[in-house]
Structure formats: structure tokens, C-alpha cells
Amino acid sequence: MRILLKAVFLTITLASSSFGGEFKQARWLMGTVAEIDLFADSETKADAAFEAAFAEMAKIDSLMSNWKADSEISIVNREGHIRPVKVSPELMETLEASLKYSRLSRGAFDVTVGPLVRLWGFMGGEKRVPALDEIVRALRSVGYEKVLLDSGSLKVQLAGVGVYVDLGGIAKGYALDRATLTLKRLGIQRALLDLGGNIYALETRPDGKPWEVGVRNPRDESRILTVLRLKNQAVATSGDYEKYFTINGKRYSHIIDPRTGKPAVGCVSATVVAPTAVESDALSTAVFVMGPKKGFALLKTIPGVAGIAVSDKMRVSKCNLE
Ligand code: ADP
Ligand code: MG
After folding, report:
1. Which of 104, 113, 139, 242 to mutate to test the pocket of ligand 1 (most atoms within 8 A of CB)?
2. Which of 142, 172, 175, 179 is deepest in the core (most CB within 10 A)?
3. Which helix (H) or strand (E) holds 311?
4. How far out from the chain centre does Cα 19 lie?
5. What are the distances in angstroms from CA 101 to CA 1, 38, 285?
6. 268/197 same-domain check
7. What is the domain extent for residue 189?
8. 159-191: per-residue pLDDT in tens?
9. Which residues have beta carbons under 5 A from ligand 2 (an ion)?
10. Whether 124 and 219 share a structural domain
11. Is 239 in the pocket of ligand 1 (CB under 6 A)?
């Protein structure tokens, strides 16, 4: 069983036998650990699948990373307020999905949260509590309606100087879906992919048993809240326990409520199961911002999704799960 625990370590090649069977490999990608566990009839086939799937993740990162000055999203952020910027179909698809989840969550999920993420020091720089007037100023550049897409011509425009798109809440999910597609194209039928705690389970294990993923207790990583059994489903967790800072005993997490301009409060962690990884990634961030009650009301309107949330009072609640 895999623990949904945004991992800490290592670029390694794990087990490999020279015959068919189960193969695993891990790499450092998108600022986190990417691990693929797959079944293949030969080591050669498995190796080709690993190479292609990890290459696909790296490609998505090279399009969507804010840490890379030459990524497509960096070019959009620099020039999109001056002229329409031509982008790849992959970036267009991710932006379209971003806007869809913004609308569904009424702005709780919003990739234009970038200026706020930066202001609070989560994009490099000093982590600090900004003054209210700084927050108010940054909020003027926030709002998903400021991202203008022309899907036909693959062009993106930003309505205003200072608008800054941050795909940190959705790009890993998209990369996971793309890597899954890559595996399928190479004839891999069963796999578990994990990109920094965003997981996709392709089919079942060979014995027909679903893939098992443990959701950890957000305040005690040695304890498991629940075990999910997944088949052709994704799961993602947004939590306050990995990227945060504390001042005077108060915890400030990297997920910002775009409506207040401040780190979201109300959830300690939000886990969402969905048919695709883009969906679970975006919705876990949305539920984290909305809190368990409103977040689950949203999940109930979307087919095929389920969730587990831990409130700031450490109350565990579930939606569409027993
Ligand atoms: P992680 O990437 O840490 O696994 P998430 O998927 O929840 O967790 O994404 C958090 C990231 O999303 C932040 O680091 C930031 O880049 C971005 N982000 C922060 N707040 C929001 C928000 N309200 N909507 C969309 N993206 C956000
Ligand atoms: Mg997310």
C-alpha cells in the first residue's frame, strides 16, 4: 500500500527483475518525487514506459513552471498583458480546466492567485505577514476572469499589468493525466503513478484487487485516516503541513483564499478522489479553501468524486465515502 504522503527523498531506481512483473522507478520532478509502479511483460518494455512517462512530466513542467524563466507560463506572465501569447495545446487545456474549476468553486480555486502567493513569500523570497494595504493592492490583480483564452488560435491574454498565473494547484494533476496516457499508449495496462502525493491508479493490480492508497493523518504522519481503494481514479491532498510558516504560534499555509488574500483557514487537509488527476488536484485545493462544509456541497454536485477533509478542529469528515 502506498501512503499519500508528500515524500521527502531520493532519485532512485527501485526493484527491477529481468522478466515480466512489477517494476518501480522514482525520479525527482516538478520539485517533488515522481514514482511509477507498473506491470509489464518485460524489463525492456517497462524501461521504455518509465522513460516516456517521466519525460512527459518533465515536458509539462517545462511548459508550466513559474520557477523556469523560459517556460510558456513565464512568457505569458511577462507578456500576456501586452499581446496575445501563443501557447501549446497542453497549456491551453490546463488553463481551460483551471477556469472551469474556478467557476465551479466560485473563485476559491483561482490560478491568478500568483501575486498573493508571491506576497506571502511562497514563491521564493521572505515568508512574512504582509500589511493590509499590500494585500489589497495584490488583490486588484487577482481574478480568473482576467485570463482570456482563445482556444481556437491557442492564444492567451492577461487583462492587466500585474496579473500573474500560478499553476501550482493544478499542473501536477495535469502532468499525471498526461503521463498515464503515455503509459497506456505504450501498452501498459496497470500502474500506480504518484507525483508528490497526487496519485493516479490505472486499472487494478493483476489479481484484480484495486490499488490501495492510505491517507495520512495531517498532524501525525505515522497514522492513517483511511485506506482508499482505487481503480481508474485519482486522488490528491491539499494540506497545511508541508509548505507553511509559523509566526507567534499561528500557522500560515501556501494555499491562499483569493477572496480574502490570506492563507485559507478552516481545513488542515482536504483529499479528493476523482476520475482524473486534474480534477482531484484542482478540487482538493478548492475544498481546502472552501472548508469541509462548503467544499463537500460542491463535491456533491460533481459526478464521480469523493472527499475526506480534516477541519482546523481536527474533525474528520467524509463525502461520498463510507
Ligand atoms: P501542493 O501543490 O502543495 O501539493 P495544491 O495542489 O493544493 O498543493 O497546490 C497548492 C499550490 O497552488 C500553491 O503552492 C500555489 O502555487 C497554488 N495556489 C495557492 N492558492 C491557490 C488557490 N486558491 N487556487 C489555486 N491555486 C492556488
Ligand atoms: Mg491542488
Report:
1. 113
2. 175
3. strand 306-311
4. 34
5. 30, 30, 10
6. yes
7. 2-64+170-319
8. 999 999 999 999 999 999 999 999 999 999 999
9. 169, 281, 284-285
10. no
11. no
Would 165 be classed as within a structural domain? no
Average pLDDT over residues 281-306: 97
Q: Is 113 in the pocket of ligand 1 (CB under 6 A)?
A: yes
Q: Total domain count for the chain?
A: 2
Pick the last residue of a domain from 138, 158, 178. Answer: 158
Host H or E run for residue 253: strand 250-253
State the pTM of this model: 0.94
- Residue range 120-143, pLDDT digits in tens: 999 988 899 999 999 999 999 999
Q: Which residues contact 82 (CB under 8 A, 6 or more apart)?
A: none
CATH of the domain at 116: 1.10.3980.10
Q: What mean pLDDT, rounded, does the chain reach?
A: 93
Strands (E), 123-205: 147-150, 155-158, 190-195, 198-202
Q: Please indicate whether residue 114, judged by its CB atom, sits closer than 6 Å to ligand 1.
A: no
Ligand 2 centroid – CA 22 distance (Å): 29
- Asked if the structure places residue 163 within a domain, the reply is no
Query: Is there a domain that residue 164 lies in?
Result: no
Among 102, 132, 158, residue at a domain's last position: 158
Same-domain status, 279 and 209: yes
Which residue puts its alpha carbon closest to atom 12 of ligand 1? 169
Over the stretch 199-240, which tens digit does the pLDDT of each residue have?
A: 999 999 999 999 999 998 999 888 999 999 999 999 999 998
| The ligand 1 atom nearest the CA atom of 281 | 6
